[in-house]
Amino acid sequence: MSTIEDRLRDAMAARARTVPDDGLDHLRPAPRAARRRGAGTAAVAAAVAVAATAFTVVRLAHPSPAPSTSGVGVTSASPTLQVSIYLCGDTSPYRGCRKGAATEREKERVRQVMAARPDVAGVEFEDRRKAFENFRRSETNPRLLKVVTVEDMPESFRVRLTPGADHAAVARAASRLPGVSNVIDEACIRDGFARLGSGDGVVDGCDFNGGG
Amino acid sequence: MDRESLRLTALAPPAPPPETDLAGLYREHRVGLVRLAVLLVGDLETAEDVVQDVFARLQGRRRPLALTLAYLRTCVLNGARSVLRRRAVMLRRTQRSSDLADSAETAALLGESRREVLLALARLPRRQREVLVLRYYLDLAESEIAQIMRIGPSTVRSTTARALARLLRELGEDA
After folding, report:
1. For A100-136, what is each residue's pLDDT tens digit?
2. Which InterPro entries has this protein been placed in (chain A) (predicted)?
3. What does the domain layout of chain B look like in residue ranges?
4. Which residues of B touch A35 (CB under 8 A)?
5. Measured between beta carbons, which residues in chain B are less than 8 angstroms from residue A175?
6. What secondary structure letter does DSSP report for A86?
7. Helix and strand counts by DSSP (H, E) for chain A
8. What CATH topology corresponds to B105-170?
9. What is the number of CB-based contacts under 8 A between chain A and chain B?
10. Could you confirm whether domain A82-209 is CATH 3.30.70.3040?
11. How close, in Å, is residue B118 to chain A by CA atoms?
């Protein structure tokens, strides 16, 4: 089968291909004027802020707090990871979206149900434009960047959880609501990376499809 | 000799047309260098900054006698190193892990198997990662890698072997 060398070649080539030929050039000027000293620091700050990078996740990944324990000693640096609830659009291919785009009523219901949960600290709506901005910032595939428009982006709710909350339970509950296309549990993804680091398996089951 | 041409010179470069020369190099190699950098630092934005910095710096007074691709690659390697160092410091200070999580969009769009490999690569010690990138992404010969990294060919060989062994361990039997 494929050797480690082949896998490495393939993965690196694929990652490199995601760097567009010229697609992003207009975003930054050619290096005419020399940059001030310390520009590198700004670069790092920007990178850390955006940090849609698999690389950094690894450095930070640490075991998740035990799911069910009641608010005992908050795991010190426990980050507030979100559960992202994506809403059906006109063309969403998901099972839960057969009836078309989520209605205003359905959206409001998702917000209310989530906000009412004791394990939810906050619910924020992310509209298409914001989603598109995030996408432009984190996506590196030039072909995707070229064809995807604002209208292609899904609306979503970003749900912040209280420390110690059972992420999977929240995600599963959200996925059952009408108008929800799918739900992504970011903590699950992160913990998946942590497991990966300890040689214990891969990221799996972090995506809950709506309508089921 | 090769090494000779790579050395930084203390002398100012002969004045005539540095700008056009550099601009040409920029046009020709920028994307390739960004691709190299992205494998070293992990994200596009930082990678572009690293390369941008390299070219910005080259406009200053410190110039090698001959601007070669190998030299540019060395610069990118160095730039990536300092970015990673600073990033590590910053992370220790701020402890804000949530800011650094993969976005849901990215996670959903990336392929699992390749991401596994890239993650394992990112976890390697700096030098091991660099050797693998130069060897298996750029397909460079041992001697060229030695030149770019400024280490001996035998070190390249042993580092590569250690890096591959470690990757294998991290990725498990299925690799």
Report:
1. 889 999 999 999 999 999 999 999 999 888 888 887 7
2. FtsX_ECD (IPR040690)
3. 1-101, 105-170
4. 52-53, 56
5. none
6. E
7. 8, 5
8. Arc Repressor Mutant, subunit A (1.10.10)
9. 221
10. yes
11. 7
